[in-house]
Amino acid sequence: MKILVLGGNGQLGRCLRDHLDNTTYEVIYTSREQINITNFEETKNKVVGIAPHLIINTAAYTAVDKAEENAEIANLVNNLAVNNIAQICSSLDIWLVHVSTDYVFDGLSEIPYKENDITNPQGVYGMTKLKGELAIQNSSCKHTIIRTSWVFSEYGNNFVKTMLRIGADRDELQIVEDQFGSPTYAQDIARSIVEIVPQLNLQNTSGLYHYCGDRSCSWYTFATKIFEQAKAHNLRTPSVINPIETNAYSTNAKRPSFSVLDCSKIESEFGVRVSDWYGGLSQVICKI
Question: What is the pTM of this model?
Answer without folding.
Answer: 0.96
